[in-house]
Amino acid sequence: MVESLIKESPMVTPMGIENRFTEEDIKRIKGYEDSEIDRFLHEELTCDKVLIYIPEINDSIYEAVQKATKNGIKKGIEDFLKNQEIQVSSLYLSKIGELVYTNYVIDGIKDSITQFSFNASDVSDYSEHFGRLFGTWVYQKSYDTFVERFLNYS
Residue 6 in 3-state DSSP? Predict the structure, then answer.
């Protein structure tokens, strides 16, 4: 049974995959999801990279923008999961590859950083870039670690 889970592609419908985990496992998976968002922000959302898209950024508001971006990513994931055929509680138990082709994370980021008085065009470019980057990052980099940690019980 575990071998078939490991061989499943993230694009495969996760038919009842959540039933294969205990409530404690689901909590650990949700904790992993949150820590992976933090890792993405640490690796990809440096002040220098943000400055490319939002020239008004400075050290005094960078941390607040990063926090708002995290909230936007989480909101985007939540909206993505609500719109899946099969309801699951974590991005890693969903058809994760489809996230790349949606705008849920982009829209979540955009909504979360509108609290700042940045240029609307800059906000759109920022949201588009980091929203797409998160989708590809989680699919290409983070999912493999998830499989090793949660599905490979050898």
Answer: helix
What is the separation of C-alpha 46 from the centre of its chain, rounded to a whole number of angstroms?
Answer: 17
Q: Kindly state the tokens that stand for 30.
A: 């949700």
Cβ count near 125 (within 10 Å): 14
* Number of neighbouring beta carbons within 10 Å of residue 119: 13
pLDDT in tens, 107-120: 999 999 999 999 99
Other C-beta atoms lying within 10 Å of the C-beta of residue 131: 24
In the DSSP assignment, the letter for residue 76 is H
Give the residue numbers spanning the domain of 56: 2-151
Please write the tens of the pLDDT for every residue from 41-76: 999 999 999 999 999 999 899 999 999 999 999 999
Among 105, 49, 52, smallest CA distance to 77 is for 105
Q: Decide: 26 and 18 in contact? Cβ < 8 Å.
A: yes
